[in-house]
UniProtKB/TrEMBL annotation:
The lineage of its organism: Bacteria, Bacillati, Bacillota, Bacilli, Lactobacillales. It comes from the Bacteria. PROSITE patterns: GNAT. Pfam families: Acetyltransf_3. InterPro entries: Acyl_CoA_acyltransferase, GNAT_dom. It comes from Marinilactibacillus psychrotolerans. This is GNAT family acetyltransferase. PANTHER family: N-ACETYLTRANSFERASE DOMAIN-CONTAINING PROTEIN, SPERMIDINE N(1)-ACETYLTRANSFERASE. GO terms for molecular function: acyltransferase activity, transferring groups other than amino-acyl groups. Residues 9-174 form the N-acetyltransferase domain.
Length: 181
């Protein structure tokens, strides 16, 4: 994969030299701050660096996971997975790990690069993601990118004593192309 670039933002393949930084951001702490936004209703467990390294082949060269840099500093990851590959149903995601890198418009710009890359390289008619109603940032990003709220399952995500909705956002290739002429 070539590097995807938008000014100071770069999305690129994960290299072995990135692993220590990724481990520090994702698995070093038992309760990292980013997890408050990224599906906090699912448990997160820290791992030792040695444990993480035993999984390095699932990170390095994986076309479904990429690292995100801002000004040459790793700040997050983007990914995709097949909900159902025979029907080309793909879901994507993004995580920006540090609070200081959020609410600056980076998420929208990163996902714009990622969606364009996915449409350019994969035979898809739709790209989507699932979030929860407590993650107003992801809902707002989807709206800014022209995505449609395709589904809302009410009160199915229970976290910290409160029920939240599960939100499905998506965009069709023809909608994306029309918006990005």
């Amino acid at each position: 994969m070539e590097r995807l670039r938008d000014q100071e933002i770069v999305v690129r393949s994960i290299k072995e030299t990135d692993l220590k930084t990724l481990w520090t951001l994702i698995y070093k702490e038992e309760n990292p701050e980013w997890k408050l936004w990224d599906a906090p209703y699912y448990e997160h467990h820290s791992k030792s660096y040695k444990e993480f390294l035993s999984e390095k082949n699932s990170w390095i060269g994986n076309n479904q996971k990429k690292v995100v840099e801002i000004n040459n500093r790793i700040v997050g990851t983007v990914s995709y997975y097949w909900e159902h590959q025979p029907s080309k149903w793909l879901e994507m995601g993004i995580t920006i790990y540090k609070q200081l890198d959020r609410e600056k418009g980076y998420g929208t710009r990163i996902l714009k690069l990622w969606i364009q890359y996915l449409f350019d390289t994969l035979d898809l008619v739709r790209i989507g993601y699932t979030t929860w109603s407590g993650n107003y940032r992801m809902i707002h990003i989807g709206e800014k990118l022209g995505m449609t709220m395709e589904g809302r399952l009410r009160k199915v995500r229970y976290w910290d004593g409160v029920y939240y909705d599960s939100i499905r956002m998506g965009i069709l290739r023809e909608e994306w192309e029309e918006l990005n002429k």
